[in-house]
């Protein structure tokens, strides 16, 4: 499952970043805290549905749909 | 405050003179680094007496601001760096922060961290400790953390990081006396730090880092961060490669 598939109200654990995402883009996501094992929830959805603000490690980070697609997650109970 | 406090030796803040924008003739350079929105500019203003714009949104400081203060017998130039999550990214403001810590060679680096969001903030702290060993962690926004029910064991943190940790609430001037004294002691080499460094690098990477780092120290004896620079060179970091070619590292 991808982060872009996460719905409002659901909680997920990040399992990794796609191999397609390399170099600076990957580095940036890791720096922002999208690392394996991190718990993430959807906090706000912009009027057009893109970007989406995610809450992780006590901070809000907004990602575009294309970026959220690169992040793999597992749903948490 | 009672008048007698100003001359009391236990009131360490009494040794502080806010010198504002006057940045000529200083003994030491001190850099303020940290994640966005942790209160770097507030610490800056409290120490220098300046009114550098503070605001509760990330990305407010995009260039560096400078000011100075004197404490006891020494004068310090304080540099307020843009907030950054990492020293490895390549956005403009993050590069300003990194280049200053790396090439500006501050005598002391203050890492300002949000006490309530330590998990996120320590990433940058650890990266800074890879580059410099004269650093202090300023555990800021303690009031906010307490309001959210967060308690921080600053002593254990200091032991694990190998650098002094000072809890502060810069907005209401709490803990600033301790911070001043720690900055002074670090600059004067009265505190010896043993910063935490990455150790679990294995196999060929470790050998390559070792080799490259030895070559770097041959070139620049006394380079405190040869291992970190070796890692960046192996990653193909263009700004570090350029700096090495131009001889800006040593």
TrEMBL record, chain A:
Gene Ontology molecular function, alphabetical: transition metal ion binding
One Pfam family hit: FeoA
User: Does the keyword Iron belong to this entry?
Assistant: yes
| Keyword Iron listed | yes
> What InterPro entries is this protein classified in?
Fe-transptr_FeoA-like, FeoA, FeoA_core_dom, Transcriptional_repressor_C
Protein keywords: Iron
| Domain Ferrous iron transporter FeoA-like: from-to ranges | 1-75
**Record's SUPFAM superfamilies?**
C-terminal domain of transcriptional repressors
Q: From the Swiss-Prot or TrEMBL record, give the protein name.
A: Ferrous iron transport protein A
Organism this protein belongs to: Dysgonomonas macrotermitis
TrEMBL record, chain B:
Cellular component per GO?
Answer: plasma membrane
**Pfam families cross-referenced by the UniProt entry:** FeoB_Cyto (PF17910), FeoB_N (PF02421)
CDD domains with a match to the protein in the record: FeoB (cd01879)
What GO annotations for molecular function exist for this entry? Answer: ferrous iron transmembrane transporter activity; GTP binding
Q: Gene3D superfamilies from the entry?
A: P-loop containing nucleotide triphosphate hydrolases (3.40.50.300)
Annotated SUPFAM superfamilies:
P-loop containing nucleoside triphosphate hydrolases
Q: What region holds the FeoB-type G domain? A: 27-189
Q: Per its UniProt record, what PANTHER family does this chain match?
A: FE(2+) TRANSPORTER FEOB, FERROUS IRON TRANSPORT PROTEIN B
State the protein's name. Answer: Ferrous iron transport protein B
The scientific name of the source species is Dysgonomonas macrotermitis
């Amino acid at each position: 499952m991808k982060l872009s598939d996460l719905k409002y109200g659901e909680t997920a654990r990040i399992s990794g970043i796609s191999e397609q995402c390399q170099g600076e883009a990957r580095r940036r996501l890791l720096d922002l805290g999208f690392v394996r094992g991190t718990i993430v929830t959807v906090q706000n959805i912009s009027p057009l549905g893109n970007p989406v603000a995610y809450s992780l490690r006590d901070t809000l980070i907004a990602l575009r749909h294309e970026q959220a697609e690169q992040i793999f997650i597992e749903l948490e109970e | 405050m009672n008048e007698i406090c100003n001359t009391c030796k236990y009131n360490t803040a009494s040794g502080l003179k806010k010198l504002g924008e006057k940045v000529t003739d200083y003994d030491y350079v001190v850099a303020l680094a940290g994640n966005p929105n942790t209160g770097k500019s507030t610490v800056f203003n409290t120490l220098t007496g300046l009114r550098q714009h503070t605001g509760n949104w990330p990305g407010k400081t995009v260039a560096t601001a400078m000011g100075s203060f004197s404490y006891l017998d020494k004068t310090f130039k304080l540099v307020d760096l843009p907030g950054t999550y990492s020293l490895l990214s390549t956005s403009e403001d993050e590069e300003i922060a990194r280049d200053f810590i790396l090439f500006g060679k501050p005598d002391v680096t203050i890492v300002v961290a949000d006490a309530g969001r330590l998990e996120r903030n320590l990433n940058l702290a650890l990266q800074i400790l890879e580059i410099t060993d004269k650093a202090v962690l300023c555990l800021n926004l303690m009031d906010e953390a307490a309001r959210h029910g967060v308690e921080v064991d600053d002593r254990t943190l200091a032991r694990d990081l190998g650098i002094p940790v000072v809890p502060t609430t810069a907005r209401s001037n709490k803990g600033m006396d301790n911070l001043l004294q720690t900055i002074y002691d670090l600059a004067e080499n009265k505190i010896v730090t043993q910063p935490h460094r990455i150790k679990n690098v294995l196999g060929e990477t470790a050998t390559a880092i070792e080799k490259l780092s030895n070559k770097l120290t041959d070139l620049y004896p006394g380079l405190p961060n040869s291992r970190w620079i070796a890692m960046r060179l192996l990653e193909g970091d263009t700004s570090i490669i350029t700096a090495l070619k131009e001889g800006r590292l040593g």
